[in-house]
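Posting here for the record, re: iron/sulfur cluster.
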Amino acid sequence: MDKDFNKADWEFFVVALKEEARDVLWSVQLDVDPDTLIKSALEDLQSLAPRPEGIESRSRDEIWKQVRERLLTAAYALRPHCIRCGTCCEKGSPTLLKQDDELFITGVLTPSDVFTIRSGEQVYLPDSDQSVPSENEFIKIKESRDGKTCIFLEASDKSCRIYGSRPEQCRRQECWNPKQAVSQSDGFLTREDLLKGTGDLWLIIQKHEQRCSHNDFTREVARLSATKGQTVDDLLGILAFDHHVRDFVSKDLSIDESFLDFFFGRPLSETLKYYGLRLDQGDDGTYVLTTDGHDAER
Ligand code: SF4
Ligand code: SF4
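Prediction output follows.
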């Protein structure tokens, strides 16, 4: 420790550290004494001690963030198994892997339980607090409208309603071992895997992808800005086709509306927010593209 780190600082640090340890223990539902946790992480924590002035580049907040991370790692090391607390189910739903196709065959999952993230679609990464375009297509279980909670999590007792048949990612989930996370090399399930044999429906999905790909959509948004709104009709054309296909499939083919986000991904109009845009319907029924905080562009 720094020689300027006086007794009062030290006493405050010890109290704050115990508080942090208590909070970490509560968050992982581990019933041990905070001192036991701190002791198990001591070597790691000592390496975080503030460096002398002029050398230290971390702020106090950054140091405390590192302290919490070390305590969390140590807490998980003391509890390396799943206690079915449901916390990971509240942070996001699973992405389906190839082997999860069985769940549709056996009826555990239906088309209304899932949605598609199409290639090129903007996805939010909570770790970096950023939205980036997805490199691949993948299918996820739907999440509650008010957050990121998986729809199969029972609110009353945080149990999983399909636990015995839960998707592969949930089986592999180990909050104490983040390296277990699934990746592209595990083989994500796609619409083609599930819907290629559906005849006309698959043809419509392919046509929709050709006319409304996220890559084309993003390019049109960029062009709209470069042309100062002159190309708005091209962007509205893509939005209209996306809307038309969904309408046609649900009304003319009598397909349940709850299946549409699986067949065609989320409506493009809902992804406009990632570009600072919004689609409103005018009094005369025509659609108006609005930039956040600015007047409408037609
Ligand atoms: S894997 Fe998920 S359910 Fe299991 S203990 Fe960790 S956060 Fe809880
Ligand atoms: S399917 Fe079950 S285990 Fe998997 S995230 Fe949803 S509630 Fe949790």
